[in-house]
Fold:
Amino acid sequence: MAISRKRKEELVNQYINWMDKSQALFLTEYSGLSMKQIDDLRSKVRDVGGEFHIVKNTLGEVAFNSAGLKLPEKFLLGSSAVVFAFQDAPETAKVLSDFARTSEFVKIKGGYLNRSPISAEEVKALADLPPLPVMRAQLLA
Structure:
């Protein structure tokens, strides 16, 4: 069933709102995941203060452009989902990276950190950072 124009506008506005509120965004490919696996990933991301949403590529492109984020072409090819990191970007990246490591179906395409584009390798490097309390302790030591 087709989505009405009004619903599409609501979705785009919601995506823009989430983009403005989040510290980081991570774009993934998820084709092949079962609904149970998607729900499991959503739950894990939510536990660290983020959101995982499947995005229609055309609506995602409109939202990214409206939010003023330059979007590399490869980010919205194939099946696309966006992980919004509202609280702790490194921890959200770690959850996503760990899930991608254990699942052959999830592939990290790249993302944005503080509105600057980052590659899939940089998302994985962000995931490897120690937690914030550990980093603070290391700096103080």
